[in-house]
Amino acid sequence: MSQPESVTPASIGIHDLALATSHYRLDLGALADHQGIDPAKYSVGIGQDVMSVLAPDEDIVTMAAEATARILERNGMDGIRTLLFATESGIDQSKSAGVYVHQLVGLPETVRVVELKQACYSATAALQFAIGLIARDPSQKVLVVASDVARYDLGSSGESTQGAAAAAMLVQANPGLMAVANPAGVFTQDVMDFWRPNYRSTALVDGKGSIKAYLNAIGGAWTDYLNQGGAPFESFASICYHQPFTKMASKAHRHLAVMAGQNPAPAEVADYLADTMRYNRLIGNSYTASVYVALASLLDTHDGDLTGARVGLASYGSGSVAEFFGGVIQPGYRDLLRVQEHRSIIERRIPLDHTAYEVLHKTTLPEDGREYRTAAETTGPFRFAGMGEHMRRYERTTD
Length: 399
Ligand code: CAA
Prior knowledge:
There is one protein chain. By secondary structure, the protein is α+β, with helices and mostly antiparallel strands. It has helices spanning 28-35, 40-46, 60-75, 97-104, 122-136, 207-227, 246-259, 266-283, 290-301, 339-347, 354-362; strands spanning 6-7, 12-20, 24-27, 50-53, 80-86, 112-116, 141-150, 163-173, 178-188, 194-195, 204-205, 238-241, 310-317, 321-329, 350-351, 372-373, 382-388, 391-396. The protein has a single domain (12-396), classed as Peroxisomal Thiolase, Chain A, domain 1 (3-Layer(aba) Sandwich), CATH 3.40.47.10. It contains 11 helices and 18 strands. Strands 1, 2, 5, 6, 7, 8, 9, 12, 13 and 14 form a 10-stranded mixed β-sheet that branches. A 3-stranded mixed β-sheet has the order 4-3-15. Strand 17 (382-388) and strand 18 (391-396) form a beta hairpin. Helix 6 (207-227) crosses helix 7 and helix 7 (246-259) runs antiparallel to helix 8 (266-283). The chain starts with 5 loop residues before the first strand and ends with a strand. The site of acetoacetyl-coenzyme A has 27 residues, from helix 2 and helix 6.
């Protein structure tokens, strides 16, 4: 058993957190209209209003580079020696998407870059690995970048739970936003609830089974957290859950509350989690980024001062791995928030009609190495320009 909950001696955690998402969006009302079903199935039943949809010249690299560039604009590059890229929407079986980001944002050669994968969980592993590196040398900083596009087949039950976003975090000693506390509770079990074989661009899922697997794994991580000496359930001012759809966070919170001997009414659960859900309701599933989008949503939209508050993070990746850990919100955190920036990237997305969304969904890239240019559509700072000789090409849209 490790030591009871404490912030690591040299407090380490998230100093800055920046989000990016897509150029387009699809309102789930338009999807419900197309399907001829009650839109409340989405707005109430799964708790989603809108999903982000990538333009043809956007991908996990362009979103990640946009979020990372914002972190570097504010903080500079001093001390950064590692970039950990978390994704389950890999663009190459070999090369890390993080290496493209490294080049696009102009990081120096003296930075190690690697990609991590375990479904929606791997950004949390990256955060813990970053803390380990910084504990060894507190002068170092680590960029943890999570970027994903959630894609299911048209007409499948998962279609309404698509989305796309990136979250970039600067992890360092004496962080400005949230110090990550010990211990962490972890859980792994081999289960086929959601997966994407190498030859598919869309995920396969056992929808109902995945909900059970999520609850089972989060419950397991929570039990391990307590066994490791973690803080009591009622001491958390808020908990940010992985949100494939926001209603899933409500199911998970109720599950943990019951394990803790509580029996909250649905309205109490909704009220407790509301601030963590505002962004995800409008972005959709962003896989690895989702739980950190929830953290940004909480910090940006909570009406009141969270200084000193203990916040829980409940991370889940199908297949499956879960982790529960706590963090302490730092004095002065409100000066570091990016409320207007985040509001703007969510609000500026252009709505698609259903036909245009279907066309984009069906667009595929050539696999024969021929020259291919993508249409210039994104207004973001980086674009996926196309391919040739089996190589992806990226460019800045602005100087
Ligand atoms: N008004 C209000 N509510 C309605 C409604 C209406 N008109 N119609 C249906 N509902 C409710 C249902 O009662 C149900 O609520 P409960 O779950 O609380 O019972 C909810 O809306 C969904 O209805 P269905 O179960 O009928 O929906 P579905 O068959 O279309 O499937 C889904 C929903 C399983 C989430 C599906 O969208 C899916 O497979 N999504 C992808 C998988 C996923 O996100 N799994 C989550 C756990 S795995 C994970 O977290 C990793 C990850 O990121 C993928």
